[in-house]
Design goal:
mainly alpha, two-stranded antiparallel ribbon, two-stranded antiparallel sheet
């Protein structure tokens, strides 16, 4: 895999790194550092969204893994992924990175992929939050929390940029969803979502888009 030259990829990953920055991945590396490692070592083949839709796809002997599927979550345990990043895969154009990356860096890349791209485990609270986000939030805030859509005269804010608002807590976000007016949506979601559902979608948003 080579360093991706195209700017759209770089911009997307920097945004994603910003949205996930804060919690440590691997052995102490931040998500921002892990995103940069993914960009330099993986994105050219696996794609900017981890879905395998890359410019290199057509030239590879075997299609790169799409990390965004339920199958990927099921078939790729963390330890197995770390081993592949370290040693490569003999039946795929996947070269090991043990001569270029430390163990901590390889673990950080895997943790970034699992957090940023892979769907949550079925039946988990995070899976419920993802389902609610897709049904109730994505139409305005976007599938990756980027925002930017117009809702009346209002431009919907990107959830990945709320990190700039100092002191935005989990409780603040839950209260915002439950308020009588959520953006230009009158009535908010006070009567549409249960307390548990509001907590689930906020936890999904925070773990996926917002700095912890």
């Amino acid at each position: 895999m080579v360093r991706p030259p195209f700017p759209a990829l770089r911009a997307f990953l920097l945004l994603l790194a910003t949205s996930l920055a804060g919690p440590a991945l691997g052995a102490g590396l931040t998500a921002a550092q892990a995103a940069q490692l993914y960009q330099r070592n993986c994105a050219a083949c696996h794609g900017e969204k981890g879905d395998g839709e890359s410019r290199a796809k057509a030239s590879l002997a075997k299609e790169p893994r799409n990390f965004t599927t339920d199958e990927a979550r099921r078939d790729l345990p963390r330890e197995y992924m770390v081993a592949i990043v370290r040693d490569g895969k003999h039946d795929a154009p996947m070269v090991g990175r043990k001569s270029r990356l430390t163990e901590a860096q390889m673990e950080a890349i895997v943790d970034f992929i699992r957090t940023a791209f892979m769907p949550p485990e079925a039946g988990s609270t995070r899976a419920r939050g993802r389902e609610i986000y897709a049904a109730r939030c994505a139409a305005c805030h976007g599938p990756r929390g980027a925002g930017g859509s117009q809702h009346g005269t209002m431009t919907v804010p990107g959830l990945s940029r709320v990190r700039a608002r100092d002191g935005l807590t989990r409780a603040d976000m839950i209260a915002a969803i439950a308020s009588e007016k959520h953006g230009s949506l009158r009535g908010g979601f006070a009567t549409q979502l249960s307390d548990a559902d509001r907590e689930a979608v906020v936890d999904y948003i925070r773990s996926t888009f917002v700095e912890q």
